[in-house]
Amino acid sequence: MFRLSPTSKRPRAAMGLREWAAWLLIALALSLGASQIVRAQRGDDAPARERYQPREGLAFERADENFPGSAFYFLDETGSLVLPSPAILTDDIGGSPGREDVVRGVVLRGSPVDRARALQCLTAAIYYEAAMEPDAGQQAVAQVVLNRMMHPSYPDTVCGVVYQGSERVSGCQFTFSCDGAMARAPSAVYWSRARRVAERALAGYVYRPVGTATHYHTSEVSPYWAPSLDFIGTIGAHRFYRWKGSAGRSAAFMRAHLGSEPFPGPKPRTALVQTAGADPLDPLALAKAYEAARLKAEADHASVIEAQRLGRAPQLAAPATSGAQAPAYAADVIQRGGDAVFRGSNLPDTSQVRPEYRNSGQWIHQPGT
């Protein structure tokens, strides 16, 4: 049997050292290549950073105002990037609004269900009105919704403001609630982003640049009511306005959140039809109604003060008419009785009090008659 001598094992040992050296060189080369790739991705290489990504970021990038796809809003007609202003405001508003242009933060009331509904409705308004806008544009839309909720000319709930007029074929206050936009399923990414803006607004954050704005429209349209309101400025894709006079001052935005949020969705269109004539939700009609109610309240207050001074009963002024028309019901509703069908007096009698005791506590004969 052939047997290797001790000296015959040396070449095999030398070969093993060469293999280990080769593997070590390969590992070093791989690690060096990987580090170069990581450095290129992170932009650690100074020349590469200056070439592809400036240290201070691109010209259109601003903290908390960018999102995937937002560069579309910063392209000029030739497709080049331009440096925009996040909000183009008029001189009377500027970046530091006066006391007449500041509203307070919202304080939500009601049950957890009411809070969840308010968040759902405000998120929907932000998403369908400004999903692709920077944060400033979304915050401005949210502030307009909350400004309306705090104004006596509009519903005192978030959902009531967002879906006001949605039962009509046209004339809804926010177009997405009656033009079929909600039939499309929302994007989860952009819905989450709109929800974060809504949560911040409902937590008391006030977006000051829009001040007391209650109206806005996109830059592509020019509604008839725009010249009659005070233009505040352009934020994102919308132009924002406030009422002139006392209706647009911060003193008018003092109403608190009601707390009883309605169903967070559009209203059914089965009961009402479009009314002819003046629109009761017209901005100018609402401003006139507010001014009439304000003058009546001031007259009543002055009458009470004067009556107290003279020791007489106050003579209050007659209620001011708002100019809002009664709803025009559909034909089948009119056949069933029209407005009388929905009155509380027609509710079924479920009282457990016997008829002879129902008038307890009332006068049998009015004194002095």
Q: Quick recap of the structure?
A:
The chain has 369 residues and is mostly helical. The protein has helices at 10-42, 46-52, 112-130, 135-149, 158-162, 188-202, 283-310, 331-335; strands at residues 87-89, 215-218, 230-235, 238-242.
Task: Label this structure with key terms.
369 residues, 4-stranded antiparallel beta sheet, single chain, mainly alpha
Describe the fold and architecture:
By secondary structure, the protein is mostly helical. The protein is 34% helix and 5% strand. The protein contains eight helices and four strands. The protein has a four-stranded antiparallel beta sheet with strand order 1-3-4-2, with helices on one face. Helix 3 packs across helix 6. The longest helix is centred in the N-terminal third of the chain and has 33 residues. The radius of gyration is 34 Å and the shape is elongated. It starts with 9 loop residues before the first helix and ends in a 34-residue tail after the last helix. About 15% of the residues have low confidence.
